[in-house]
Amino acid sequence: MFKLPSLATAPFCPSEVQGSVAVRADAPLWQRILKFAGPGLLVSVGYMDPGNWATDIEAGSRYGYALLWVVLASSLAAILLQTLSMKLGMVARRDLAQTCRAEYPRPVNCMLWLMAELAIIACDVAEVLGSALALHLLFGMSLLYAVLLTAFDTVIVLGLKGHGFRQIEAIILGLIATISLCFAIQLYLVGPDWAAVMQGFVPRLATVHDTGAVYLAIGILGATVMPHNLYLHSSIVQTRRVGSDDASLRSALRLARLDTVVSLLLALLVNAAILTLAAAAFHASGHTTVTEIQDAYHLLDPLVGSALASLLFGVALLASGQSSTFTGTIAGQILMEGFLELKIPCWQRRLITRSLALIPAFFGILWLGEAGVGKLLIASQVVLSFQLPFAIWPLIRFTSNRRLMGAFANARVTQALAWLIFLIIAAANLWLLGSLLA
Predict the structure, then answer these.
(1) What is the pTM of this model?
(2) 21-295+324-437: what fold?
(3) Segment (H or E) for 304
(4) What is the DSSP letter of 203?
């Protein structure tokens, strides 16, 4: 029988907000499902952050429903990769950063840590811009002042000091429910062609021959699969305490996989809703050049015929930007503790990350003006896309290693699919790099 290493304290941010959730093997199935629900939700918010909005809105306005299949394919790839991340944490009882530190030499670890930190900062830039833009649109405040105001979300983290991890999961669930409800109502108001929506999920070769569509497809892929989420998931899943025998672990893996799949399918629906809203409201009415979030906000009212549409759009954008505040902080702490064995208070970590994100956001808007928000959002997604292969490579290697995973190592089919995703993402990055240098 495969023996688990001894269980250590879950190594994510919150020594101050951490707490393990005990799961009894003899509890009813519905209770065990509820106990395991949560880590997938925290991961899913990274798949519906403001960085996704820019690519989805432009894709919907320019190509209608034609690129919905890219959203679906990207989400399925994310589900597979996050499932591998979850499995590494539950079986090896180490997160991806800790495993890298144990398996790779120090220079390699330093490089991987720096790249992962860049990804977190890039994601936080998108959160700053999204939250600031929402405040600007909803309350008419200056965009620069709104950017500075986002610095105070550190107070939220301070306010959670001493609270359990389940409270954070509950807050994230509330924010995700807000985003989902806002888009559900907006879609009802817009009234998309649902037959065309279904057809959009079918891959079309015609889009592959369109350079603009390929560029947007890569943007959607880069905005969907987040590198720091792979580190995050492998750690926070350890908050669920399970038995060390094979049978208990297999049962736990099934429940954690269900949590992952359901949560990321919800993120898929949100991303598909953003693109569908843009296609129905803008592309169908001839507005095929809507590329900025603020343009979408201002156009919704006259096109839909209801002031409620843009209000809901702004509220969803604000919730989207704020929801990633928690996960970005936790992921940053995981990286520092995993790669460097460095522990600092959670609020200090949040302050460092947000300070580094405020600099490019503030000066980018100061230089480019309001029109620069879209450019900065896209740039943040490009950075994320370039970091992704450096997180996927070790994840696949570790979860396929029988020395680390025992009987739970990846099957050949899983390995083949994971490496195929890696090759597609690496090739997409090379194409994108070539187009940027051309």
Answers:
(1) 0.84
(2) Amino acid/polyamine transporter I (1.20.1740)
(3) helix 293-304
(4) -
